């Protein structure tokens, strides 16, 4: 799965992908500095949009390519389904265990994870929560680049970068809404973007130097993202009275990511 123009410059593209994930979240936080706030309706629509992009990226940019790659390595129809399905479940289990044992705090659900959470400053609990949320996105970017296939990498890179912008915006406003300063809000967005960038490099090195694990890695990233969408993004965007608006945002994000995947690949 190697495109001709993608060989020696793959590491450079991986660094670019890592930088995009870092900067997109921070870029989204910047407009929040000039705003006093936005309505809950707008927050839910933006969260739904991000969820739709991630959901479509999971399906079209991660799971489908993983199935095709697994099929190339096997004459059986059973083996690719087993590899991809199992890897997705492992990815979801990984995020579940992270949520269970790493102390963090959500804006609506409150504290989760290890009981030692009480010993951490509240802002660091928010940082850890958003970092857990963003890690699968960075992993997806790095895995896509590590495939050395522009058809796989380009839609993931563009789609994740696109959805990180409204995500950073909502996070910054939410932090400001619970009495944190504008500076702290932007710094949190930067910290969590850095986590996503590191995850991108992890995904890249894991797949580029062991191409045989690519189907597993793509499906693992897809399962991790699916867990985040189902466990956090959709429930949080539907907790208020704007569930229909959030669903509309999700559908727009899903269709946009599908469009990007078809046109860029």
UniProtKB/TrEMBL annotation:
<feature type="transmembrane region" description="Helical">
    <location>
        <begin position="213"/>
        <end position="230"/>
    </location>
</feature>
<feature type="transmembrane region" description="Helical">
    <location>
        <begin position="185"/>
        <end position="207"/>
    </location>
</feature>
<feature type="transmembrane region" description="Helical">
    <location>
        <begin position="45"/>
        <end position="67"/>
    </location>
</feature>
<feature type="transmembrane region" description="Helical">
    <location>
        <begin position="12"/>
        <end position="33"/>
    </location>
</feature>
<keyword id="KW-1003">Cell membrane</keyword>
<keyword id="KW-1133">Transmembrane helix</keyword>
<dbReference type="GO" id="GO:0005385">
    <property type="term" value="F:zinc ion transmembrane transporter activity"/>
</dbReference>
<feature type="transmembrane region" description="Helical">
    <location>
        <begin position="152"/>
        <end position="178"/>
    </location>
</feature>
<feature type="transmembrane region" description="Helical">
    <location>
        <begin position="242"/>
        <end position="260"/>
    </location>
</feature>
<feature type="transmembrane region" description="Helical">
    <location>
        <begin position="123"/>
        <end position="146"/>
    </location>
</feature>
<feature type="transmembrane region" description="Helical">
    <location>
        <begin position="79"/>
        <end position="102"/>
    </location>
</feature>
<dbReference type="Pfam" id="PF02535">
    <property type="entry name" value="Zip"/>
</dbReference>
<dbReference type="GO" id="GO:0005886">
    <property type="term" value="C:plasma membrane"/>
</dbReference>
<comment type="similarity">
    <text>Belongs to the ZIP transporter (TC 2.A.5) family.</text>
</comment>
<keyword id="KW-0472">Membrane</keyword>
<protein>
    <submittedName>
        <fullName>ZIP family metal transporter</fullName>
    </submittedName>
</protein>
<dbReference type="InterPro" id="IPR003689">
    <property type="entry name" value="ZIP"/>
</dbReference>
<keyword id="KW-0812">Transmembrane</keyword>
<keyword id="KW-0862">Zinc</keyword>
């Amino acid at each position: 799965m190697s495109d001709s123009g993608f060989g020696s410059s793959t590491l450079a593209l991986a660094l670019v992908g890592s930088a995009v994930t870092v900067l997109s979240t921070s870029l989204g936080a910047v407009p929040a500095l000039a705003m006093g706030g936005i309505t809950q309706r707008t927050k839910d629509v933006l969260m739904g949009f991000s969820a739709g992009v991630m959901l479509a990226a999971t399906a079209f940019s991660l799971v489908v390519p993983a199935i095709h790659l697994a099929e190339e390595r096997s004459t059986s129809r059973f083996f690719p389904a087993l590899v991809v399905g199992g890897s997705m479940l492992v990815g979801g289990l990984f995020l579940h265990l992270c949520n269970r044992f790493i102390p963090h705090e959500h804006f609506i659900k409150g504290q989760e994870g290890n009981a030692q959470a009480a010993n951490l400053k509240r802002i660091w609990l928010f940082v850890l929560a958003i970092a857990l949320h963003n890690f699968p996105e960075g992993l997806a970017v790095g895995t896509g680049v590590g495939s050395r296939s522009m058809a796989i990498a380009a839609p993931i890179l563009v789609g994740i970068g696109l959805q990180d912008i409204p995500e950073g915006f909502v996070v910054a406003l939410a932090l400001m809404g619970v009495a944190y300063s504008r500076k702290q809000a932007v710094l949190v967005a930067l910290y969590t973007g850095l986590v996503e960038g590191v995850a991108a490099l992890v995904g890249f090195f894991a797949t580029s130097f062991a191409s045989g694990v690519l189907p597993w890695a793509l499906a693992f990233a897809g399962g991790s993202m699916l867990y985040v969408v189902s466990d956090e993004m959709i429930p949080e965007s539907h907790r208020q009275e704007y569930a229909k608006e959030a669903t509309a945002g999700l559908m727009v994000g899903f269709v946009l990511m599908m469009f990007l995947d078809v046109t860029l690949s």
